[in-house]
Amino acid sequence: MTEAEDVAVFQDVPQDAAGPIRVVLVDDQELVRAGFRMVLDAQPDIEVVGEAGDGVQALELLRSTRADVVLMDVRMPRMDGIEATRLVVARSGPKVVILTTFDLDEYAFAAIKAGAGGFMLKDAGPAQLIEAIKAVHSGDAVVAPSTTKRLLDRFAVHLPDADEKAGGALESLTEREGEVLRLVARGMSNAEIAGRLYVSEATVKTHMGRILMKLGLRDRVQAVVFAYETGLVKSGQSGHSA
């Protein structure tokens, strides 16, 4: 598939916000897909519109199938979830949620950097899966604070050294915005940050919006990655410490 064809894949398929959330399942294990489909098909506002066993099949499927959210496995034959996610996001395709076994998938961090709207563990409960799909579809990033911290701590050794451009971008933030970003990266929720700073959750959300705009970041996931890459937060630090 050429790059031009990739562009056409997602530009030619209209994205309609009305109706149920249309989901594509991408996993090389048929039983895993069957389990997810059983859970999702039981929801009146979610519809599974297709399945694929690897990244190549997923891209082919998305050429003719309108989808809102893709549940993407990481380790698959032919084309893994990292490359598939990068291509889907680069072509302004559907939102992507990465599915990982965590202890085995050392590619989850790279997949998030590739543009996934979030990540979750494969053993998450049905309610968590449904909540994640709805959150990503609405434009939010799926970032479970505790999981985010554990994942980043685990993969911090793979982070590249901060460059001058990224470090300089931090200077555009106000002192309070820098503080909010630091707490977000340490795994704190908006409610926890609001309590720590004695402000409302709405104020925290406003700060986050300005942080994303100033740093040119897409969502909360990228903000967390950025904070670690620039050294604003070091592996092992916790927002819950005194």
From TrEMBL:
Per UniProt, residues of the HTH luxR-type domain are 166-231
The modified positions for 4-aspartylphosphate read D73
Top-level taxon of the source organism = Bacteria
* Response regulatory domain boundaries: 22-137
Fetch the InterPro entries from UniProt.
Answer: CheY-like_superfamily (IPR011006), NreC/VraR/RcsB-like_REC (IPR058245), Sig_transdc_resp-reg_C-effctor (IPR016032), Sig_transdc_resp-reg_receiver (IPR001789), Tscrpt_reg_LuxR_C (IPR000792), WalR-like (IPR039420)
List, alphabetically, the CDD domains matched. Answer: LuxR_C_like, REC_NarL-like
Q: Which UniProt keywords apply?
A: DNA-binding, Phosphoprotein, Transcription, Transcription regulation
Q: Which SUPFAM superfamilies match?
A: C-terminal effector domain of the bipartite response regulators, CheY-like
* Protein name, per record: Response regulator transcription factor
Supply the source organism for this entry. Actinomadura monticuli
